[in-house]
Amino acid sequence: MSFFKEQQRFHPIWFFLVIGIILLTSYVFSIVLGNGEINFLYLILENSLAIVIFYFVFIVPKLVTIVNEEMITVKWMILGYTIYEKKIPWLEVVKLDIVKYSFVGYGYRITSKYGIVINARGNHGLRLITSKSKKFVFGTQKPIELTKYINNNNKIVRNEK
Predict the structure, then answer these.
(1) Which residues partner with 1 through β-bridges?
(2) What is the DSSP letter of 61?
(3) To pair with 53 at 20 to 30 A between CA atoms, which of 26, 77, 83, 85?
(4) CA distance 30 to 24
(5) Would you say 65 and 6 are in contact if contact means Cβ atoms under 8 Å apart?
(6) Neighbouring C-beta atoms of residue 30, cutoff 10 Å
(7) Interatomic CA distance for residues 119 and 104, integer angstroms
(8) CA-CA distance, 3 to 126, in Å (whole number)?
(9) What is the DSSP letter of 120?
(10) What is the pLDDT of residue 16?
């Protein structure tokens, strides 16, 4: 059985940007609240905890999309454990296309225009509507490869401009 599989993570530039903001803010507050004196041990411990928490919330999770002949599966995973999974059998898919969407945020979002949007980065996604009129957009960094796989397996994908 052939399949398409894609794994995505949040963009690492956000990680370094937020880490920089955490360090700068912590440093400034240490000076202001400490009357000019800085307790570097406290500063290191405080920042280490914030960085570790941020790392496990935003960098470790990955979005896995698997499309095979039977269904479309999308999972959010952390350290190998699935924390969210959505499976949509092809029999339930009424409409399907690849879209380039405006920024809706990252992660799991509910929007009026796209329905449920699940993405980790970028602005391309597999949009589908089910027989129960539920709308989904699953983010992809490989819209061309995904379109080819789906079209080669007798599902028709249109690209929206």
Answers:
(1) none
(2) -
(3) 85
(4) 10
(5) yes
(6) 17
(7) 9
(8) 15
(9) S
(10) 73
Q: How far is CA 38 from CA 20, 21, 34, in A?
A: 18, 18, 6
Mean pLDDT of 44-51: 74
Q: How far, in Å, CA of 52 to CA of 21, rounded? A: 15
Strand ranges for the chain from DSSP E: 3-9, 62-68, 71-78, 81-89, 93-100, 107-111, 115-119, 124-130, 135-139, 158-159
**Contact, 139 vs 117, CB < 8 A?**
yes
Residue type, 55: Y
Beta-strand pair 135-139/124-130: antiparallel
Give domain limits for the chain: 1-161
Contact 124, 141 (CB under 8 A): yes
The set of residues, in sequence order, having a beta carbon less than 8 Å from that of 16 and lying 6+ positions away, is: none
* Residue 150 to residue 96: CA distance in whole angstroms: 10
**Two structure tokens written together for 74:** 């999308």
- The SS3 of residue 118 is strand
pTM of the model: 0.73
